[in-house]
Design goal:
alpha/beta; DNA polymerase, domain 1; 11 helices
């Protein structure tokens, strides 16, 4: 018996190929996309304007793959952390409610192979890449699916390490035949892999959040080992090739570790490094992870460092983490099912 191929996660070109194989005109692909990505159907029978013979063909060869989340935990602040299981392994997804927006934080991998020293995901190792469909299932498969206004690729994994699937998922989310979300409502977070960063910026028009955490290469490499082969100098050079504005924002994410990276010297060096970029800075107090030695800074440290960066001419925001009590905050996602404790 042939393995059924999932339609969910296919872009328009791939759906057109499905139609041609099923002896249909190419325009039928937009009908399929409408049912998959706008109506979120779970069966071919629900596709009212698709012919019965073609439905039978689809039934024999394809499936509408949906992965129901296994469970969720809910924070006192309303944040939810969902657990999914995909072919590559377990993955966590966070939903962050707000007064004017509902944001979903999706994962692009099960685990991560970059091993940032402060991150719970990296500490758990790497299980595998997610497909575009599996990235999308985190959006379509949560209870708040219809309420989502913003999407951030800031969950488990390094998005640029899974670039083609991430780009395909963004295409499906932003195109009129797909979910039709404005690109300005989507942000991809990365540590910065220069060659792939250049391709990502050329092939998409969503916003970028780059993890900085230190302006000094020798200190940044302690936090982000990938700095060894992906230097800040090369990353900045790529960013300068592309335009950023109010529709496509460039943000530098800066996790503040108590006693490590919040001195006046750091603020001055950041000012020098980013002076020619149209960027803003998000300061994030470190969320303490069991078994890791980094400490969270007090609020006065965050406010003082914010003022020093503002003196350098930056728009700077302190981003208070959500869902810390359920380990759903920045750097805390780590699907423990991938690495159960030894007996």
């Amino acid at each position: 018996m042939n393995k059924l191929l999932p339609l969910f996660g296919m872009n328009l070109f791939e759906l057109e190929e499905v139609c041609l194989k099923g002896e249909q005109k190419k325009f039928v692909a937009k009908q399929l996309a409408h049912w998959l990505y706008q109506k979120n159907v779970s069966s071919f029978e629900e596709m009212k304007n698709v012919s019965a013979p073609f439905k039978a063909y689809l039934q024999e060869n394809y499936c509408i793959h949906r992965s129901k989340y296994l469970r969720y935990s809910e924070s006192v602040d309303g944040t939810r952390k969902y657990l999914f299981h995909f072919e590559a392994g377990y993955t966590e997804t966070a939903m962050i409610p707000g007064e004017k927006r509902t944001t979903v934080c999706v994962s692009s991998q099960s685990g991560c192979r970059f091993g940032c020293s402060f991150c719970a995901t990296g500490a758990g190792g790497f299980s595998g890449h997610l497909t575009a469909g599996e990235i999308l299932e985190q959006i379509y498969g949560i209870d708040e699916n219809q309420e989502i206004s913003n999407i951030v690729y800031m969950g488990m994994g390094e998005p640029l390490d899974n670039l083609q699937e991430v780009l395909k998922s963004i295409e499906i989310l932003t195109e009129n035949w797909g979910r039709a979300i404005s690109p300005s409502r989507i942000t991809v977070s990365t540590i910065g892999l220069p060659a792939k960063l250049d391709e990502f910026l050329a092939k998409s028009n969503v916003s970028l959040a780059l993890s900085l955490h230190s302006p000094f290469p020798e200190e940044r490499v302690e936090l982000i080992p990938a700095q060894k082969s992906n230097s800040l100098e090369d990353i900045i050079r790529v960013l300068k090739k592309h335009k950023f504005n109010q529709h496509r924002r460039l943000t530098f994410e800066y996790i503040v570790f108590k006693g490590k990276n919040h001195s006046y010297k750091h603020a001055r060096a950041i000012g020098e490094l980013l002076k020619s970029l149209n960027a803003r800075i998000n300061l994030i107090p470190y969320n303490e992870v069991p078994a890791l030695t980094f400490q969270s800074p007090e609020s006065y440290i965050m406010n003082q460092f914010k003022k020093e960066l503002e003196l350098q001419g930056f728009i700077c925001t302190v981003r208070n983490s959500r869902g810390q009590d359920i380990e759903a905050a920045c750097g805390m996602l780590a699907a423990k099912e991938n690495n159960p404790p030894s007996e």
